[in-house]
Design a protein that fits this description.
Elements: H1 13-23, E1 27-29, E2 36-38, H2 40-59, E3 63-64, E4 70-72, H3 80-86, E5 91-96, E6 99-107, H4 112-122, E7 131-140, E8 154-164, H5 167-187, E9 193-197, E10 209-216, E11 222-232, H6 234-239, E12 242-244, E13 250-252, E14 254-261, H7 263-272, E15 289-293, H8 298-317, E16 322-324, H9 332-341, E17 346-350, H10 352-357, E18 359-364, E19 373-377, H11 381-406, E20 408-409, H12 414-420, E21 425-430, H13 434-444, E22 447-448, E23 451-452, E24 460-461, E25 468-469, E26 471-476
Parallel strand pairs: 3-7, 15-16, 15-17, 20-21
Antiparallel strand pairs: 1-2, 4-6, 5-6, 7-8, 8-14, 9-10, 9-23, 10-11, 11-14, 12-13, 17-18, 18-19, 21-26, 22-26, 24-25
Helix pairs in contact: 2-5
The structure holds one RNA strand of 76 nucleotides.
Length: about 475
RNA sequence: CGGGGUGUGGCGCAGUUGGUAGCGCACCGCGUUUGGGACGCGGGGGUCGUCGGUUCAAGUCCGACCACCCCGACCA
């Protein structure tokens, strides 16, 4: 059989991505326009991600709750910028039980409004603050152009919504969460990200400050991978979230919100995948190691399976997420390719020769071919495998970081900026004006990504207009 | 919404000047295979996106509609 390979990343990155998502069984197209079905393999990856994040949220004092999917349409009118931002993307329910509804209900595109409404009921005193609630769920935005995981009409995420007694505390919360997102991206997903503040034009609808983490995909486009917003009193005033302070004076709360979505799954695929398929970071991979037994006849089979079963039990006990591929109907070669497509970090091969020598063959997914293969003794295999998994984890981060750094440029002038953003990022001084930002967008399709929190010392000249600039910002084409 | 494209077994496709549907993969059975995508033989499965028209006859021609995909504007 002439095997149908994936398109290579170089020949068509977009098609490589689409086919990979489908063929690795991460997700499939749903019968509803722009919607996807996250298949078990993709969902297990997401579950591992949510577990790692949820742990971090809980450690910092947050609790989970669930708010309804349907929101009275009128709620969106209460915050001017918010409604302008989201009205075009709303799906609205007009009928229920066969009757036309008194008031149409929006399918939530995000939950600031309904949570703000509830907070105004729950918060009365400074003693009630802060409120630190997160919810795991899905939201719906009527997107014009969709792509599996990166931008689907319905997507799964967590959205945190907090209310605080003062500005300082709310700002701290926004940055605390941003740090959590960056820590998660770097240490769990092995994706190096830049933390920074969004420009005015790239802010969330209704926010005073939006911060984000941005990652670089292998096509060098940027992907906003999570956001953390400071609202000041915008939503508190719109929804009358007020409390009595120590002096018995009525005050408005300061609120934040922050979210990370299944888009991050797309980031993992686009950052680490290769022409063979997915390459999943061991810490998040649904399957960390797959055992492929190899034999020719029944005599070999019984010997090999005995060893394979023993090794399976041993690795399982060591807490490694494992799969035994004992399918009879396909050849080992097929299995190798199959698990490589699915991005399993480590493959354990056991054949008659290994049984003889009390060894196994280990193949690293992140290092294709012979260089990634090693023959190790069965004794102490659990430790060997665990060690290799963490080695792979850090190798992925190192590789992605090197790639990113090699593709961030510091153009000398505007002409050079126009060049570099065609195939990379520019990190340049920017005067802060919306005009300069718009000019770059119009002439290059690149947008500002964010202004890193730790800025270089001093000031410079705006890469666009040459005026004095206080901040450096990333320009890049983005998803 | 603008531009482009595609709708034919589960998937990918072919189908000549209109004559009543075929191939590869996948699937089922049997046998041989198995250290980098195995092979042989035998099977099951579609009325061709929808509606209408032309015709003795439509997957093929005409019209309308629908859906989806890709590229732009908008967005986690």
């Amino acid at each position: 059989m002439a095997e149908d390979k994936l398109p290579t990343r170089a020949e068509n990155f977009s098609e490589w991505y689409n086919q990979l998502v489908l063929r690795s069984e991460m997700a499939d197209y749903a019968p509803v326009r722009g919607c996807m079905v996250v298949r078990p393999y993709g969902w297990t990856l997401w579950e591992n991600m949510t577990a790692a994040l949820d742990r971090r949220f809980k450690e910092t004092g947050h609790v989970n709750a669930a708010f309804p999917t349907l929101i009275p349409l009128s709620f969106f009118e209460k915050e001017k910028e918010h409604v302008e931002g989201f009205a075009p993307e709303l799906a609205v329910v007009t009928h229920g039980g066969g009757e036309k509804l008194e008031e149409p209900l929006a399918v939530r595109p995000t939950s600031e409004t309904i949570i703000g409404y509830m907070y105004s009921k729950w918060i009365k005193s400074w003693r009630d603050l802060p409120v630190l609630i997160n919810q795991w769920g899905s939201v719906l935005r009527w997107e014009l152009r969709t792509k599996l995981f990166l931008r689907t009409a319905e997507f799964y995420w967590q959205e945190g919504h907090t209310a605080h007694a003062g500005k300082e505390e709310a700002m701290e919360e926004m940055y605390r969460i941003l740090d959590i997102y960056a820590d998660f991206a770097i240490n769990e997903a092995a994706i190096p990200v830049v933390k920074g503040r969004k420009s005015e034009s790239e802010k969330f609808a209704g926010a005073q400050i939006t911060t984000s983490i941005e990652g670089m995909m292998q096509d060098k486009r940027a992907l906003q991978s999570a956001t953390s917003h400071y609202f000041g009193q915008n939503f508190a005033r719109a929804f009358e979230i007020q409390y009595l302070d120590h002096n018995n004076t009525l005050q408005f709360c300061e609120t934040t919100s922050w979210g990370l979505s299944t888009r991050m799954v797309g980031a993992i695929i686009m950052v680490h995948g290769d022409d063979q398929g997915l390459v999943l970071p061991p810490r998040l991979a649904p399957i960390q190691a797959v055992i492929v037994p190899i034999y020719k006849n029944d005599a070999e089979k019984s010997k090999v399976m005995e060893a394979a079963d023993r090794i399976f039990a041993e690795l399982k006990d060591a807490g490694i997420r494992l799969k035994m591929d004992d399918r009879e109907e396909v050849t080992p070669g097929f299995k190798f390719n199959d698990w490589e497509l699915r991005g399993v970090p480590l493959r354990v091969e056991i054949g008659p020769k290994d049984v003889e020598k009390s060894s196994v063959a280990l193949a690293r997914r992140d290092v294709p071919g012979r260089e990634g293969k090693s023959f190790v003794p069965q004794a102490g295999l659990a430790a060997t495998v665990s060690g290799l998994l963490s080695e792979i984890q850090s190798a992925l981060l190192t590789r992605a970081t090197a790639f990113r750094d090699a593709n961030i440029h510091d153009p000398k002038d505007y002409d050079e900026l126009k060049q570099v953003v065609q195939d990379g990022w520019a990190f340049s001084w920017w005067c802060g004006s919306a005009e300069c930002e718009a000019k770059v967008k119009e002439e290059t399709k690149a947008t500002t990504r964010n202004m890193p929190l730790d800025q270089p010392k001093g000031t410079g000249k705006c890469i666009v207009c040459g005026e004095k600039a206080e901040k450096k910002i990333y320009f890049a084409k983005a998803y």
